[in-house]
Amino acid sequence: MAIGRLSMKVGKAGKAGPHAAYIAREGKYAARLDRNEKLEASESGNMPAWARQHPQEFWKAADLNERKNGTTYREMEIALPRELSAQQRADLVRDFVRQEIGERHAYQWAIHSPRAADGGEQPHVHLMFSERQRDRIERDPDQYFKRYNSKNPALGGARKGYGPSAGMTLSAAERKAELRQLRDRWEKTCNAHLERAGLAERIDMRSHAQRNTGLIPERKYLPSEWRDPALRAKVIDFRQARAELSQSREVLRREVPSTGAEIISLELERERRLAERNGPDVSHGAGFVAGREGEHSHMAKNTKNTSSANKELAERASAKEAGRIATALARQNERRENQESMRLQGKGPDAEKAAQDLRVQKERADQAQAAQQQRRQMEQERRDEQDRLVNQLQRENGVKPSRQPTAVEQMKARAAQQGHIKEHAQAPGQNVVRMDQMKARAVERGHLKDSTQEGGQGGAGARNSLEQMREQAEARAADKEQRSDEQDMER
């Protein structure tokens, strides 16, 4: 079955030379010809004089001289009909190149025919061409790919631009429209060659949705996925089932009109026999025949009218029946294709149930994580409030709030406790001031009242409360540090 496919690709700087070697199966790509793959034909044209005998030099020069963010080549990758011979496929490509490229752009193409998944041929053509336009001015490789000089073309490079809108900036919708027009032109050219070869097959470049076939497009597979034997076997089975479905639809399309013709033929036969039974009896004599001539003529007219009406009725019934059969088969085949597609993509009933279970488990895990995070946040807020109260009591009693150790200091302390680093002792003679020394110095300077001279039960109660809260804070810090050490050990 002939397949309609045409894709347009764009090559960046540094890719033209290797890709030209790839399609021509030269250099390291020559080994592919030993793996059940054929290079049916390869040609080049419109090359400048310095690359006419060696097209590879043109693409290498494009890689060297085009801008880093420029386009070195464009490529059409087109599927060719299996039904045509190798020579007929080459003639088809030459005709299309003559139509689309003409003498405007340097080009190179090659026809590959690897083995397909079903064991048959998979012929396709790679058509590379440069966007640089020929203008009959000879340029060396350095000048050929320079910027175009509109005032003096001989001093600049070849002008860039391809297609009807060459040199124009197109939107995404306009580029898609141009690609559709290109595919339509390929469809007409390919079908003309198929008809010329006496073949009934035709290609259709429209999508399944545009053709209203009811078929589901097959998703694209990566080369790594395609090398998986299990997945490849599933895809081959799916393609075979889809091919059988298309074949059965074609048989149905051919059989339904013949069924209608058979119904009409049976109606005509019934009318003929009825006319014979109601015809004139020759034994009654010529007078009776002459007397009944007008009646017979009237009966013939009525029979003719009845026959025409029966034909129309039979045609309407046949078309209605055929439409009902075709609709039922299409729905059945669509259900089968959907089930097969879901099975191949892992979306069957079992997979759907498993996916639902996974979603429920994920939601539960997210809820548990959110609750745990909320508990941690509430615990941290409670601790911050307690620390705030401790600092407030210290300020009320004239004690400078103790400074919380920084994250770096906490890490160093934990590392010293675990023996990862050695704790450095204070050097002799270093000015080390303790809290009581700082407090005494503040009392001497009058910045702080001496709490030891204040008597009374209130001061003792405040000191006791302060000591209790300080002990609680130290206990919490020790507990927190222990949990942090345990987590570090677990990690």
Automatic annotation (TrEMBL):
InterPro entries: MobA_MobL. Residues 300-310 have a biased composition (Polar residues). The keyword Iron-sulfur does not apply. Keywords: Conjugation. The keyword Plastid does not apply. Residues 312-323, 349-366, 376-388, 436-452, 468-491 have a biased composition (Basic and acidic residues). Residues 275-491 are annotated as: Disordered. Residues 44-219 form the MobA/MobL protein domain. Belongs to the MobA/MobL family. This is MobA/MobL family protein.
